């Protein structure tokens, strides 16, 4: 018997495939790590034919095989000692070990369609759910506002001031804008801002760094937007608190907006955030907003995003160049998350994962807020792709999904032991499978596998009526693992292609009955007051939604499955029942939120 190849996510998974296909007594020929997982070569344990004389072993070949097995074992041990691929991805992107561990939580389930692009999108969604971002400029510009652009020297405050003014002018015109320059230390700073003010047609006022701000702001009370370009102050400068106090004592509410250099080291960013926030607190001010500058100069965006998430600052804009105002973008209009997760050039400074130390309160709060944001995005996505999903999550009586019910062929799925008549002889249906005419292969998702259904058909008779017997063999498309046989009987007069299409649908939906029963039992526990008919209808719709998610191959479906399965307490395998549990979990959590 020829050897067969099995690939699993880990050694246990691969060995389970071997036992399923070849039995407990299978002979293991080799085992090694590959990019796809653990690969095992095995064959059924058939005793070899007796030989008159045992040949002398080839010592060179034996030595080479042993050395190969030792190297495979060394690689396996080395791989097990490494952090998970997703954790390593985040570390290579510049995120800290502590936040990376929190971001991952439950890894997405092992799935045959978990491509690098989809895993990258999953990681981006996890980061997006934790990152506070400005969604609409109206939150900044619609009400009269005084903004003070603060930050260390050289981070781009003056250019950022001009960009902010330009964005306001584009929306509302120049009449209601005034710029204030307080940076008299840096040569040319005032002249640079003066040129921008002339190009934009807005007022510019110069003020010494130690001069009181209140009188000037009083004269500018009619302006809806005043932007103050402050003097650059190092986080180690003792005058930092004094400068922030001058802004806080101006007589008007001043919104501090910290500019952070994306190209800075993570420890430096952390130091800046700590010091500026402490200074703002000491001066009786709040520092909740930031702009990330020099994104085009940063090799990694991970460190700055890591700092923003941990400190809870809102990301208002990203700056990536000198053009005014083109190079200032809202987070939602930028691909910064994709840029942040680009690890095509691995970092030489990635840190090793730190041992987990219990979560702090701020991490728990971030997790809850991020969970709410992620669940809202998940429900919005499912509402777009699954008709009636919003009503279903609200457990409304009129909730009904436009999901096709199992086709009529489900009623005539049968057993191999059924006796039919073929060519005048009465035989078991299973014995006729080899005589069937081949009818091609259909690709589908089946019980969390990329599977192929090989079809054969044969004319038979049952109770003196002409029928078409169909024989289906289901195999995993990647490993070739046998997943089962199916037998159907259909009316012989119907078009064969239509019958084959319905068979694929029947195979996809054969779980619907058991899933509906499972969902009904769960709903009875969660909502004991629901009328029985409504409960069964909702359970059927939830089961249909779970099956649709299980079978869909699109990117949105992969992201939805990953999020739903990540909500479960135990490590899931991606089965439809687990997806159904995730949908029920979402319905309960969203109603609580």
Automatic annotation (TrEMBL):
GO molecular-function terms, A-Z: GTP binding; GTPase activity; signal recognition particle binding
Q: AAA+ ATPase domain spans which residues?
A: 143-279
Gene Ontology biological process: bacterial-type flagellum organization; protein transport; SRP-dependent cotranslational protein targeting to membrane
Lineage of the source organism? Bacteria, Pseudomonadati, Pseudomonadota, Gammaproteobacteria, Pseudomonadales
Q: Its principal location? A: membrane
Localized where?
Cell membrane
Topological category with respect to the lipid bilayer:
Peripheral membrane protein
Write one Pfam family the protein is assigned to. Answer: SRP54
Describe the task this protein carries out.
Necessary for flagellar biosynthesis. May be involved in translocation of the flagellum.
User: Which intervals hold domain SRP54-type proteins GTP-binding?
Assistant: 144-342
User: Gene3D superfamilies this protein is in?
Assistant: Flagellar FlhF biosynthesis protein, N domain, P-loop containing nucleotide triphosphate hydrolases
* InterPro entries noted in UniProt: AAA+_ATPase, FlhF__GTPase_dom, P-loop_NTPase, SRP54_GTPase_dom
What is the protein's given name?
Flagellar biosynthesis protein FlhF
Q: What GO cellular component entries does it have?
A: plasma membrane
Q: Which UniProt keywords apply?
A: Bacterial flagellum biogenesis, Bacterial flagellum protein export, Cell membrane, Cell projection, Cilium, Flagellum, GTP-binding, Membrane, Nucleotide-binding, Protein transport, Transport
Task: Write down the CDD domains for this protein, in alphabetical order.
Answer: FlhF (cd17873)
> Which PANTHER family does this UniProt record tie to the protein?
FLAGELLAR BIOSYNTHESIS PROTEIN FLHF, SIGNAL RECOGNITION PARTICLE RECEPTOR SUBUNIT ALPHA
Q: Belongs to which family?
A: Belongs to the GTP-binding SRP family.
């Amino acid at each position: 018997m020829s050897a067969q190849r099995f690939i699993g996510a880990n050694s246990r998974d691969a060995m389970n495939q071997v036992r399923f296909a070849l039995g407990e007594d299978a002979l293991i020929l080799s085992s090694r790590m590959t990019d796809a997982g653990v690969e095992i070569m095995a064959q059924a344990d058939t005793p070899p034919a007796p030989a008159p004389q045992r040949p002398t072993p080839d010592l060179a070949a034996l030595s080479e095989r042993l050395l190969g097995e030792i190297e495979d074992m060394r690689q396996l041990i080395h791989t097990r000692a490494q952090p998970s691929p997703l954790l390593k991805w985040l570390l290579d992107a510049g995120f800290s070990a502590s936040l990376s561990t929190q971001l991952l939580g439950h890894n997405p389930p092992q799935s045959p369609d978990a491509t690098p692009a989809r895993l990258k999108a999953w990681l981006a969604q996890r980061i997006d759910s934790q990152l506070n971002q400005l969604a609409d400029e109206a939150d900044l510009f619609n009400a009269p506002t005084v903004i003070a652009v603060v930050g260390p020297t050289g981070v781009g405050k003056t250019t950022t001031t001009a960009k902010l003014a330009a964005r306001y002018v584009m929306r509302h015109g120049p009449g209601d804008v005034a710029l204030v320059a307080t940076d008299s230390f840096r040569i040319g700073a005032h002249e640079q801002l003066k040129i921008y003010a002339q190009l934009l047609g807005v007022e510019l006022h110069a003020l010494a760094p130690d001069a009181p701000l209140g009188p000037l702001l009083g004269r500018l009370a009619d302006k809806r937007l005043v932007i103050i370009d402050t003097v650059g102050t190092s986080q180690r400068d003792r005058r930092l608190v004094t400068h922030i106090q001058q802004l806080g004592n101006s007589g008007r509410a001043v919104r501090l907006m910290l500019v952070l250099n994306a190209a800075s080291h993570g420890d430096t960013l952390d130091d800046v955030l700590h010091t500026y926030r402490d200074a703002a607190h000491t001066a009786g001010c709040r520092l909740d907003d930031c702009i990330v500058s020099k994104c085009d100069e940063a090799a990694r965006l991970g460190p700055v995003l890591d700092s923003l998430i941990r400190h809870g600052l809102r990301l208002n804009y990203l700056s990536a160049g000198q053009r005014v105002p083109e190079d200032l973008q809202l987070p939602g209009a930028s691909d910064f998350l994709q840029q942040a997760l680009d690890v095509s050039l691995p970092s030489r400074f990635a840190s090793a994962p730190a041992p987990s130390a219990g979560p702090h309160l701020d991490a728990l709060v971030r997790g809850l807020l991020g969970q709410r944001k992620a669940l809202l995005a998940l429900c919005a996505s499912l509402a777009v792709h699954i008709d009636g999903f919003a009503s279903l999550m609200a457990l409304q009586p009129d909730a009904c999904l436009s999901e096709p019910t199992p086709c009529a062929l489900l009623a005539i799925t049968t057993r191999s032991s059924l006796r039919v008549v073929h060519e005048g002889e009465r035989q078991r249906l299973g014995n006729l499978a080899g005589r069937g005419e081949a009818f091609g292969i259909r690709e589908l998702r089946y019980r969390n596998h990329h599977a192929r259904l090989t079809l054969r058909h044969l004319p038979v008779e049952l109770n003196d009526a002409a029928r078409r017997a169909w024989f289906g063999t289901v195999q995993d498309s990647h490993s070739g693992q046998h997943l089962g046989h199916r037998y159907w009987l259909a009316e012989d007069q119907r078009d064969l292609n239509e019958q084959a299409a319905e068979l694929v649908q029947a195979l996809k939906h054969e779980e619907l009955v058991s899933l509906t029963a499972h969902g009904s039992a769960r709903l009875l526990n969660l909502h004991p007051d629901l009328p029985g008919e409504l409960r069964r209808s909702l359970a059927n719709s939830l089961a249909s939604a779970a099956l649709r998610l299980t079978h869909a191959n699109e990117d949105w479906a992969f992201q939805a499955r990953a999020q739903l399965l990540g909500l479960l307490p135990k490590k899931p395998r991606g089965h439809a029942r687990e997806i159904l549990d995730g949908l029920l979990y979402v319905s309960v959590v969203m109603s609580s939120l």
